């Protein structure tokens, strides 16, 4: 079998320029789903056009929703939530996307006359689904699975509202239950001990769906009215911007301006952490909407070590592999703990991050729920495997900018999952 060539990232002296990160992946999934729930025509601008968001598009297409994709926009024509159709072959392919399968399961569990099989690629088929099956079954859902893994066979059933205390912090599980609540009889409550990203709730508010937060508990009512089509601009993805924050903070004489990036407080804990560790970062908020966005300026910084513990993990879950890379260049030893959830991502991100950093000459000790990273050791460069995980490929690419010798990345094309233009941007900021 022919394998694609490794991507070679050469070290640079500095990075400079302006970047508009792609549309936020989490918000794009949700905006697409709400456009499919709405009846009529919607337009979503600055959509994330990575493979994950396209998995959501293709599942919704099979449910009878029409999409016309432009470069970064999509026009959606939907018959409305109550008129979704049974897919002819009953199969919905969710590709690599955990958000697609977990959120759609919530939407489909209460659809009468609907029977679907949700499937995914190799990686998604190894990720735990018991976390959504349990609450959905409590609501009355009819779900069969391969022992808690895909494929999930969901037969639409009448649901009832429940009070669900999340056993683990997860925006996907929270969103699944809240979305199922739209079809449930009575009110649905989700309690989260630690706050996770709240885009499902903010979008519900934007569409005047009665959703309320009381301390740690979110409640939603049955959706009784029709949501009309809408226009929506997706803010830039702070988790994609994070790679450039690292690239701007680490090499000498660098300065990057990241434009129109989401500043949703549930997503920018990594920026706050880096600022506390001495990062030269300015945040300029442009609007005060439910989904705030703004610009971020980052300049070369001298960073100190950090300790990330379980309470901080949900707020920076997707940035942890990159923060581990940053820790290799900070002063002192850094620790990431209480982060076992990383083992259930697109790859086992504790193992894949540690392997990637060690291959480049870093000193990393791996624990069951995290890792300890020795700072201040220059990266040598070398060969790494992305393990099919976009976040590992992108963190390794940033490492290539800082290493003494080039970094060769096998399996780099998985950056398409969330950031198809990633390497064009990297080349541009390294040239200027
Ligand atoms: C996401 C939630 C997080 C995150 C994932 C996207 C979402 O997953 O890691 O990339 O869009 O809700 P968990 O809910 O499993 O923490």
Structure description:
The structure is a single chain. With 432 residues, the chain is of the alpha/beta class. It folds into 2 domains: 2-23 and 235-431, UDP-n-acetylglucosamine1-carboxyvinyl-transferase, Chain (Alpha-beta prism), CATH 3.65.10.10; 25-233, UDP-n-acetylglucosamine1-carboxyvinyl-transferase, Chain, CATH 3.65.10. Helices cover 30% and strands 26% of the residues. It is built from 12 helices and 25 strands. Strands 2-17-19-18 form a 4-stranded mixed sheet. It has a 4-stranded mixed sheet with strand order 4-5-3-16, covered by helices on one side. Helix 1 packs parallel to helix 2 (51-62) and helix 3 (98-108) runs parallel beside helix 5 (171-181). The chain is globular and about 60 Å long. The protein binds shikimate-3-phosphate. The site of shikimate-3-phosphate (S3P) has 9 residues, from helix 5.
CATH topology group of the largest domain: UDP-n-acetylglucosamine1-carboxyvinyl-transferase, Chain
Distance between the termini: 38 Å
Number of helices: 12
| CATH structural architecture of the largest domain | Alpha-beta prism
The small-molecule ligands in this entry are: shikimate-3-phosphate
Instruction: Tell me the helix content.
Output: 25-40%
Biggest β-sheet: count, sense, barrel? Answer: 4 strands, mixed
In the CATH scheme, the class of the largest domain would be: Alpha Beta
Q: How are the strands of the biggest sheet laid out side by side?
A: 2-17-19-18
Overall 3D geometry?
A: globular
